[in-house]
TrEMBL record, chain A:
Signal peptide: none annotated. GO terms for cellular component: membrane. The keyword Membrane applies. It comes from the Bacteria. It is found in: Membrane. It comes from Frankia torreyi. This is Methylamine utilization protein MauE. One of its GO terms (biological process) is methylamine metabolic process. The chain crosses the membrane at residues 21-39, 59-80, 87-107. It is a multi-pass membrane protein. It holds the Pfam family MauE. Keywords: Membrane, Transmembrane, Transmembrane helix.
TrEMBL record, chain B:
Residues 29-52 have a biased composition (Gly residues). Residues 1-83 are annotated as: Disordered. This is Protein-disulfide isomerase. The keyword Secreted does not apply. Belongs to the thioredoxin family. DsbA subfamily. It comes from Frankia torreyi. The lineage of its organism: Bacteria, Bacillati, Actinomycetota, Actinomycetes, Frankiales. InterPro entries: Thioredoxin-like_fold, Thioredoxin-like_sf. PANTHER family: DISULFIDE BOND FORMATION PROTEIN D, GLUTATHIONE S-TRANSFERASE KAPPA. Coiled coil: none annotated. The chain crosses the membrane at residues 103-123. Residues 53-63 have a biased composition (Low complexity).
Amino acid sequence: MNTIAYRLTTPTQPASRGISTVLRLALGVVWLVAGLLKVNDPDGMLRSVRAFRILPEALVQPVAYGVPFLEIALGVLLIVGLAVRVTALLSALMFAAYITAIVSAAARGLRIDCGCFSSGGDLTADAPTHYTSELVRDSLLLAAAALLAWRPGGYLAVDRILDKPVNDRSRSDTDGLEF
Amino acid sequence: MASNSKTRGKGGNGRNTPTSTKPAARPGSGSGGGSAPRGGSGPGGGVRGGTGANSAAGSNSAAGAGGGTGPARRGKASAEDRRAKAAAARAAAAAQERRRRNLIVAGVVVVALIVAGVIGFVVQNSREESKPVVLPAAATGSHNGIIVGQASAPVTVDMYEDFQCPACEALETQTGPTIRTLLDQGKIKIDYHVMSFLGPESKRAANAAAAAANEGKFRQLHDVLYANQPKEHTGGFTKDTLLTLGAKAGLTSQAYKDAVDKGTYDGYVAKVDGDASKAGVTATPTVLVGGKQLSGTQLTPDGFRAAVTAAS
C-alpha cells in the first residue's frame, strides 16, 4: 500500500505534504524576489511591458505598475500559506501568461529581455536574448505552481489553522450528545 | 483534498467504535439528526436516517425470531446504523461548512490581490512625479529629437542611442568618423533621440546632453561622453563626472552646471525615452537613414555611407 507513488500523491502522507511545503515556499520566495526587484523601477517595468508590444498603450501603465505588487502579494500569501490552492492557480495563470508573452516575442523576432526578475525591455543591438532559458525557467515554475494547486496541503500554512475550528466544532457537537 | 480525507477518516472512526457507546446514546443520536439542519443538508439526512432505522429494525426482528438474543442485537444494530448516518450527516455538514469557509477565504484573497495591484498602480503613479518637460533649444526634430547638422542637408538620420550603451560606443568608435565627415559635408543632418534606460547614470548623461544642446554643444559633449564611457551599471556618469566631461567639451557655463545639478531636463529626457519606446525602438543603437532602419551590417562605415547615398 505505502508505495512511493502512494506516499507522494496522497495528500495526508508526510512525503506529499513535505513536497507541497517546499514547492509553496520556493514559489513564494520566487514571487517575492521577482516583485521586489521590479518594484523600485517603475520606468523599467513600463519599458519592459511596452517592449513586448502585446498590450495596448492604455493598459501598459496599469500592468507595469500593478504587476510587481501583485507578485509580492502572491509571494507573501504563498509563504504564509493562505488560500494556497487559489494563489497557486493564480501563479500558474501568471506563469502561463508570461510564457505566452515570451513565445510571442520570440516568434515575432523581438529582441527583448523578458524583465522577469528586473527591468528588462530593450536590449542593446548585439546583446543576446535568453528566450530559451527564460522559457525553461518559467515552464518549471508553471509546473511547480500546478503541482501545488493539485496538492496545496503542506505544513506551516495558515490554511491548516483555519481548517481546524470546523473539526473542533463537530467534535463539540458530539461531546454535547455524549457520543 | 487533505481535509476531505480527514473527514472521511473521522466518519470511519465513528462507525468503528460502537462498542464504546452507552445505550443512553440512542435517543441522543436521533436528536443528532435533528441538529443537522445547522449544516444545511440536515433535513434530508434526518429523514433518511429515520427510514434507515426502520428498515433495519424490521429485518432484525425477522432474523431475531430464531434466537433469544434478538432484541439486544436489533437495538445495537439500529443504533449503530443511526449513529453512522448521523456521523455521515455531520461530516457532510462539516465538509459544507469547510467549503463555504474556503470560498470566503479564496474570495477575500482574490480581492486582496486585486487591491494590491490597484494600490501598486496608484503608488507608482504618484512616485512618478511627472517632471516638467523643458525643451532644449535644438530639440526641433521629430518627437523633440535634437537636430545636429545643417538644416539644408538632404538626408535625415534618426539615431536612437543611450550614452551608457556599449554597442552605441562601439558604433561611435567604428562609424563615428564617417558620420562626422558626412555631417560636416552637409550631406546628412542627425535627429538624436537620446534614450536612457541603463540606470540613473543614463538619465543623468541624457540630461547633461540636453543642457549641452541648449547651448549648441550637443555634438561636442556627445563625442566626449562616448570617448569616456564608463562600464555599464557601475553608476559611472555622476554629476561630477558630467561637469568634468562637460568642461572638456567646452561647457563651463553656470547654466550647464545648474542643469546637470538640478536635472532641469529630466522631464524632457523621460519624454524622449518614452516616445522612442512607444515608436517601437527596442534596442540601441537604432539608426534610420531617410526613415529606413539600418541592419547590423549596415552600421559599418561603408554600409552607412552606402545607405546615405541610396537615400539622397
